């Protein structure tokens, strides 16, 4: 086996070796460009705010401190807001993916007479929106303002996600669905017991899209629940902290914001922004390893069907 490998290396042309070397160098550079901003944010968030003003922090904190995180988690509403964010992410993702998958299955059936019309109706909403004010009036008339469900119901159906799942379902062997019908399964039973297990790769991808959107969303909180602290989310609270630290910062060169409520902890808008980025990113990054195998499965399933 080693002889065969060495023979292939000798037979490869200089152009092939140069191309491989270029690919390796390019991917290393791409990895550095992708990872460096996140590492730099971690270093700034763990560095003393006064010292960070000097600059020169790249991959490693110069003066270690947890004051930035103490300042963020010292806010009384941050823990309840994190709970609301987690609930809207979990519930919103489950409801949205399930309803979107049901719609995708319906529109993938050739026997559904209005499938083209309904599909075009949904696609139309991707290009044209009613606008912010009509949307707010609709939410008000539905009685969703001031309720938790304003985070869930408006985003139940994602058109792009529906197209992704529908395309995946259309690629499934029709014989599997026909065999389920021959065994007496109805459409809902076929969807639950046959289609859903086979579309896990597509739904895992869509779930990640929906979960990231739900976790990062704060503008809907600002529009519909800004006066209700019980329904405030983590992203909205972090936005308020950043806005407060920015508008209240001193105008001197130090630009440091002191908060008496946090035992005199000194922070700057830059350090708060870096800390907020880490706090908001880490939870959603922890989800990816659990979905990675489904991404790989989705990439290889077409080759297995071949």
From TrEMBL:
Ranges annotated as spanning the membrane: 21-39, 78-105, 117-136, 148-169, 190-212, 272-291
Pfam families linked to this entry: BPD_transp_1
Biological processes annotated in GO: transmembrane transport
Protein origin, superkingdom: Bacteria
Subcellular location: Cell membrane
Principal location class: membrane
Membrane topology summary: Multi-pass membrane protein
Ligase in keyword set: no
Assigned GO CC terms: plasma membrane
Key words, A-Z: Cell membrane, Membrane, Transmembrane, Transmembrane helix, Transport
Boundaries of every ABC transmembrane type-1 domain copy: 82-291
Family assignment from sequence similarity: Belongs to the binding-protein-dependent transport system permease family.
The protein, known as: Aldotetraouronic acid ABC transporter membrane protein 2
